[in-house]
Amino acid sequence: MDINTHTIQGRLAAVPRVLRNERGAIARLRVVTSYRYQDRDNNWQQRDTGHNVIVRGDLVSLVESLRVGDGIFVIGFAEDHEYTDASGVQRVERQLVAKTVGRPLAAAPSSKRPATPQEATPPTTPSRRVAPSAAPAKEAVRQPPAVSTEGDCFDEMDEIIKRGAQ
Q1: Residues 130, 136: contact at Cβ < 8 Å?
Q2: Which stretch of DSSP H or E encloses residue 82?
Q3: Which spans does this entry mark as compositional bias, Low complexity (predicted)?
Q4: 3-state DSSP assignment of residue 99
Q5: What is the pLDDT of residues 59-82, one digit of tens each?
Q6: pLDDT category, 139, cuts 50, 70, 90?
Q7: Which of 71, 129, 147, 159 is buried deepest, with most CB atoms within 10 A?
């Protein structure tokens, strides 16, 4: 069995081009991923790679709300697209056909635009809501667990889960 699944997480490099017709909607995206590494001289280098992404159907409406610089992740499959350019040369372009598109959970707002109210404030959870008649209670500030070098990381996870269940 062959597997042709690709996952990328990067930033939108250009405004999505959307085409709608009687058969449905299709969007073409350009997503840039970055890779940082240290060279032999211990200098940090960055390598950017551009990916052509095709989005079809209901996923197009999600893509239309994105702006240049926004974080995006795509899960899909690679497909080769053959065409002849203006000078008559036969070309092959590899593109990612999206099956799943979304925003990374930890994506910070783009530095090129101000944060929207939804991005700037965390959502309220039912446990944080206070009845209008009740006096507001002080919330305990959660401290991150101390990092220990002994034992394994699952012991720490068990403690966090137990504290959360109480």
Answers
A1: yes
A2: strand 71-84
A3: 114-137
A4: strand
A5: 998 888 888 999 999 999 999 989
A6: low
A7: 71
Residue 159 confidence (pLDDT): 60
pTM metric for this prediction: 0.58
In the chain the domains, ranked by start, together with CATH numbers, are 6-113 (2.40.50.140)
Q: Phi first, then psi: give them for residue 103, nearest 5 degrees.
A: -100, 140
Instruction: Give the closest residue to 97 by CA, choosing from 50, 48, 52.
Output: 52
Query: Where residue 32 falls among pLDDT bands split at 50, 70, 90?
Result: very high
Strand-pair category, 44-56 with 17-21: unpaired
- How far out from the chain centre does Cα 27 lie? 17
> By C-alpha distance, which of 20, 108, 5 is closest to 56?
20
Distance CA 66, CA 17 (A): 11
DSSP of 16-80: PEEEEETTEEEEEEEEEEEEEEE-TTS-EEEEEEEEEEEEETTHHHHHHT--TT-EEEEEEEEEE
Candidates 61, 64, 53; CA nearest to 93 is 53
